[in-house]
Structure to design on (1947 residues):
């Protein structure tokens, strides 16, 4: 890895401590610190009064110890003087309450006032720090998303929303038509009547509200990027994204205009299959490039126990193997005060290196030594692409169906079958070039982007295999269902028509007061075994396809549930169930991989990762117990959280 | 059934589609559509500009296909222009937030402005459509209740509430006395101090707030009824009630002034015993008349799975057998956009008939054929009446006791024992004529209406059997407990005094940190077996009665728990426990039925309904499995969801 | 006991009923009534109009029946006319909503207006009732706490908070430093920016907000005390504290300036171990004095089932044995109306004596007879003191850690081991004189008061045993962690350094999606057995101590977990785990008791209390079943809820 680092707060610990810290960092193998994302009030303690001395000194001292710096713009935490003098800079939540000082991300991302102050501090920072050679990268803001404080509903946002809608739809007549206002006749007759959606409003209005907020917040990030790039074009400028990767900002669009994909990944929040998926996602944002983990736990509170020291190492190697090029620990030292004081740093409160320091130091020093010879290995080969469309994610968030047909859960469950087989995947946007892949997976792609439709056809014509699951091509770009039968634009590709669908859950049975889901029993025509479907099942009409699986249940008996259509060279498989049981979906994945000629690595215990990169294979045991595996024709015995790098594949 | 129908939205699907739809409807056996309940903005797109052409055309086209129309007044969804120009028409919730455009039922039912606009549109509609012969019925508003958006707390409502209280109580002194303001001395000394209750306020204040809102919203419905009747007296005018039948509006009073009892009944929300109870309730609102199901699921989302096609038929026949004369499916076609888009129609999004259409078509056509010969059968005989008093329901909602002594749950559990025995019941108001019945059941009747008291005495004197359970006659008309011992006005009838009562639940035991309810063990003096009591047990003093059951538990050992008092011809049974175990309450029900000479149909599996109507007996299997039953001396084998109509009883 | 009493509401029941009630009270052994805490509107029905006649009459009538009176100031429930004319007297909650009339405790405790009106009514009451000989005590307000309605956030409180902070810290610079505003740089640059904390704000800001509110509300109580004492110095003046003893007001400071410790203790809310701890706490507030139970259930609703009649007696005797000198039942008669109408009184609604009256009467008459000879016994000997610091309690409330390291739960669990051994304890403030004790327990004392540090050193030097558990001496007085290693000020006493700590819970395992706590396995060096730790484990460095227990788990293997340091005469034991399993903590408690020479009474079934007072030993069976115990060399057989007083110890 190029960078092993930590988040550092010289504004908190004071200038007199920097040299001591830099020395300890260096001893721990650290060569990057991230600085400044919350330091606005210490950079500009009063309106127009700037104090950068402490920061210059810190950056210099770090540089003297061979440590480079990722500087941050401090916009997540406006100073008290700013929000008190300019309340219009504060976000107003859906209930109309203006947020107040003392937290973070409480700013309005459309406020012109806020942009003016942000511009001044960012431009100043950029100008001031252009001369430091060891400032190599920038993080804009901190974890910009629409989750932590929600969408802003201030009157300025309302007005901007109207402007945005006007430029999108031109007229109110078109807006009414696109939003499908005919049910409950919520028709708008004057632009002033139009406002951002609250939770109980119609899906298309909610979707556009999310899109608007997404664009405006992304724009707030990108406007800062331009300011920085104007100062020095060679800086690597990005932002650190966190949280709900399916439901926050459109990360594809954002990273497209930034230099490196950066992720805050606390490995103990999710199980390892999800972590691996997230790393594959970040690997995909900038094709051919490595990603950075800009925050990871030194030892957490709130999310989980402090990492087993061996576990930190396993996670570090997993990140490296997946294509990580930076691993930045949050945070250097546990803070004594303030919010998030429970998030533990590498150093104790006392500033003394303890367990966490030692575990991280050991792992970092080993990585520095090893990565010299391993860093130039080719990235993992990904012959499989999952299509992830943020409009689809926003749509599931915007409709009542989102709780019944959980998009993220279904996506993750399907991806897990590839993780279990040690098949690496890419997560690509609907506009992606599909030519690098042999298998393309479409999970719950309820909207079909026209570019994607075209590319899928070319892809299959060229011999590719497509595997779609769940709701497919049923909604238009405004999240409205379509009058024609699905899968929209893909009817010929799959050789089926989707007439509608059935929700398979049941809150109430006739004989009992509460019941869980009602699975359908299915049996495969050919090789595949019986299984069950849940959540939702498309009402299929086979046109020009082979039926792999039919419903056995007496009501819908004989109706197709899984189909495939072969072309000269390619294949399009459609499983109409939003969720199949793991065993059955596993068999389908095996089948699709086989047809696509993608090799899986099976016979490996779960949560042992096998990742090939050129001539080497990384084997990482994420389990608390030793395991024996056979990889690259070698028998390996890995201890708990053990890591091995073997030659061959 | 006279009407087999569906909800239809020509304002949504457009005029060009109506003929196609009408044809498909006709083919499905449909002869009624419900139209217009949300179409205000398409009827009056701007203040005073009316556009009824599309609606005239739709009604005409439907008429040409032999389909009649239930028109609706569109007041649940005021147009955007109206609420924006007149914010005083918007409901203000308990937290003081004025609701906003984009939902439904967000209007204030006391607003004079809203009434003015409502009057204009309703009068216009009535005048415009008086000439259409196939407009046969009207629905006012849509599902008026106090649940969906809650009680309005705007300043106009506050003022109206004061006026209402003044006319009810005359003086503040009387108000203070009636509301029992002496505890915490919340005494009012000026009318301006009086406001509608919020959730944490005193029970009597809450009860009057509910009564006030109930009256005002009912009045809003009835004022529309008058407008319509002024136009044509032969229209059948009503409204469709939904939701919480125990806790919403006083349906008895409302239907008393409307032409037909209409219920939105989605059969998959509750188990069949509750559905049957609700149908019996609606059968009871207009004695001697049939009820209408104005909405029922074509295939749901949110509440349950799409009906098994056979299950739709079973529900249809159950509704018919209980006395339904209309069965209107919600909705003709699944909407493409807007709220509730997950509620599936008979047609798919595509407009193509699919599974749901076919299942409903089959059931409807069969019904049309059969009901010709069955429609004139007498209604089911109901020798048993449950007294349901909305003041009691509102009282349980208004007091902390409502969660400890769940009125609706206890009522339903008691009624279930009659359902299990295929004994049909009526649900009657406290002012009902009791002479048609042989057994009258009083579940948790904590307030005794004076009329009821008189009629019960006559009823028993005339040979009737009364069976009361739980809290009985302990509160006055303001939900205050009474100084004298219960059961108020009925001490002589039952020959007991209720000194007070004991709450049988226990949050905390002495030996464990949490415990569930603490049942008392009881043993019957005579024939009945042991059992347990729960929730609440009255502290009884036997006066002039026979004790059927005594408490066995050592503390209260020997205290009466179930008593009966015989008169010359009649009998009054009182079970002092709010809840007995099913087996024991079943034995009591058998006992009471036996004494009343009401025949039960036993030996039938649960959820198989046996309903007698004159010379025919309907047998409906609501189970997913075939059953064998013996009915009217015939052995029947019914498949899953099977229906049979046999001669004899 | 000196007083056996009940809460009485003559303003509710009317003057004509008082004589009847007084007679019935007297017959039940009652010699004290508590009167007036909610009666403001009946004492002052209009601004400046006072009506005390009814109260004079009631007090006189009670006096004639030999019943003394604890009068109350009526400030929890301001009259409607007051809050309507002066809205600034109403509390504003954290969301900015001003509370409204119809509830209680809805006043702002910093409002000058409210204080003016309160002063007038309290001074009037005191002057009016100074002449009644049977008015012997006063209760101020009712259950003052910061829980029921929360902290007030009105603009007056905001201004007062700033004033309070200024006087505490002098300058904004100091405030910023004390609050540790450097993380997220929430620095204040103008006093107007400073406001009371809401839930998501930084811990030090939350802590000071709680301290401020605590001081202001306490001051509101004490200002009333002065008014009363000015009238008659011989009155026993106090207030009745309830609810969350760990999280409400600083009861030590409050009772220090009042005459008697009064507790509202509903025995069926908690299990008996917690009740016993609470009684020991109230015994400790006024050293050497007896406490009063100012409210206890006659038979509850909401909290639990009505007491088994024998159980009321067991609780009464337990209270007596622990040092109670008054036992006041809430309430004389169940109210007919208003809030809390579900709380049952001794009399039924009807005013007729029923089950509850009879059970209480029996217990009270027995107590009156017995207590003549038992009342002068010395109080229970307490050789063990638990240090309880409200700043620590407020700190756990103010930080995210409070949910992970539950202070109250851990405190209670540790105390339970003493209860199980029938070892009586005192709960003392950090400033207490420790010389009366042989063992001092420090549960989760994350802040160390300097006085305590000094006294602990003297105590151990004098031969005392200290036993500390969990987080110890890690935070400064502003709830900030300290730069130096813990335990602050006590490093030498314990001979250890605490470098930091580990959170042992784990939300997420690697092999499963959710996991519970991750216990460490430990083994005792010497006599003690294996066990597990949970929640949090200090990262210890042994300096000058003996290690009793080491961590066995491979990661932290060999690290000390429990240590002791012997001095010439004393001993300091530190268990670094916030929570150990019951068996292990029991062994530690045995060990500490042994070293301190404190005798335990073992071999007694759980929830059978053995309490020694001089020459007598009280044995109380809180179980629903008979038990056999050997106490004071006698074999006793106690029935369910049985009580025995035996000679000897």
């Amino acid at each position: 890895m190029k960078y092993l680092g930590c988040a550092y707060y010289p504004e908190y610990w004071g200038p007199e401590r920097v040299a001591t810290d830099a020395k300890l960092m260096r001893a721990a193998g650290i060569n990057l610190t991230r600085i400044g994302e919350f330091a606005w009030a210490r950079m500009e303690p009063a309106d127009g009064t700037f104090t950068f001395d402490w920061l210059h000194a810190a950056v210099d001292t770090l540089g003297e110890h061979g440590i480079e710096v990722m500087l941050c713009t401090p916009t997540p935490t406006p100073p008290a003087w700013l929000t008190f003098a300019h309340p219009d800079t504060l976000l107003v939540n859906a209930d109309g309450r203006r947020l107040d000082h003392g937290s973070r991300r409480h700013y309005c991302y459309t406020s012109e006032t806020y942009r003016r102050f942000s511009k001044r501090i960012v431009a100043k920072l950029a100008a001031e720090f252009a001369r430091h050679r060891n400032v190599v990268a920038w993080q804009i803001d901190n974890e910009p998303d629409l989750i932590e404080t929600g969408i802003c509903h201030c009157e300025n946002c309302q007005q901007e929303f109207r402007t945005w809608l006007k430029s999108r739809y031109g007229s109110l007549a078109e807006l009414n038509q696109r939003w499908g206002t005919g049910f409950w006749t919520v028709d708008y007759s004057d632009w002033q009547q139009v406002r951002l959606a609250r939770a109980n409003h119609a899906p298309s209005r909610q979707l556009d509200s999310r899109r608007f907020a997404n664009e405006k917040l992304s724009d707030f990030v990108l406007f800062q990027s331009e300011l920085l790039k104007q100062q020095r074009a060679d800086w690597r400028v990005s932002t650190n994204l966190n949280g709900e990767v399916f439901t926050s900002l459109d990360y594809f669009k954002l990273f497209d205009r930034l230099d490196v994909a950066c992720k805050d990944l606390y490995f103990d929040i999710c199980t390892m299959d999800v972590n691996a998926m997230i790393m594959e996602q970040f690997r995909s944002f900038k094709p051919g490039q490595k990603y950075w983990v800009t925050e990871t736990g030194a030892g957490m509170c709130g999310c989980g126990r402090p990492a087993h020291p061996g576990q930190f190492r396993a996670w570090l190697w997993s990140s490296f193997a997946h294509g990580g090029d930076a691993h930045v620990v949050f945070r250097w030292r546990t803070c004594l005060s303030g919010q998030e004081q429970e998030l533990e740093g590498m150093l104790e409160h006392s500033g003394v290196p303890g367990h966490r320091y030692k575990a991280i130091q050991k792992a970092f020093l080993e990585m520095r030594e090893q990565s010299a010879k391993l860093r130039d290995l080719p990235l993992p080969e990904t012959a499989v692409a999952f299509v992830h469309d943020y409009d689809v994610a926003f749509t599931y968030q915007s409709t009542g169906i989102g709780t019944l047909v959980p998009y993220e859960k279904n996506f993750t469950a399907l991806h897990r079958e590839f993780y279990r087989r040690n098949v690496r995947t890419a997560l690509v946007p609907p506009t992606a070039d599909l030519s690098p892949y042999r298998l393309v997976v479409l999970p719950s792609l309820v909207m079909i982007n026209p570019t994607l439709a075209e590319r899928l056809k070319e892809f299959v014509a060229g011999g590719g295999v497509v595997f779609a699951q769940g709701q497919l091509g049923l909604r238009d770009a405004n999240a409205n269902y379509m009058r024609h039968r699905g899968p929209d634009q893909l009817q010929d590709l799959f050789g089926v028509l989707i007439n509608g669908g059935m929700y398979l859950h049941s809150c109430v049975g006739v004989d009992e007061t509460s019941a869980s889901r009602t699975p359908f029993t299915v049996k495969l025509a050919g090789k595949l075994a019986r299984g069950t479907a849940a959540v939702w099942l498309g009402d299929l009409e086979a046109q020009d396809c082979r039926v792999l699986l039919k419903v056995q249940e007496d009501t819908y008996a004989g109706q197709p549930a899984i189909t495939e259509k072969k072309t000269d060279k390619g294949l399009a498989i459609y499983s109409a169930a939003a969720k199949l049981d793991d065993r059955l979906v596993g068999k389908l994945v095996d089948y699709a991989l086989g047809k696509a000629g993608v090799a899986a690595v099976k016979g490996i215990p779960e949560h042992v990762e096998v990742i090939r990169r050129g001539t080497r294979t990384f084997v990482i045991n994420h389990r608390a117990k030793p395991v024996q595996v056979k990889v690259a024709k070698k028998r390996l015995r890995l201890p708990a959280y053990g890591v091995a790098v073997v030659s061959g594949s």
About this structure: The longest helix of chain A spans residues 203-231. DSSP finds 19 helices and 25 strands in chain A. Chain A has three domains: 3-151+217-374, 384-596, 608-647. The two ends of chain A are 21 Å apart (CA to CA).
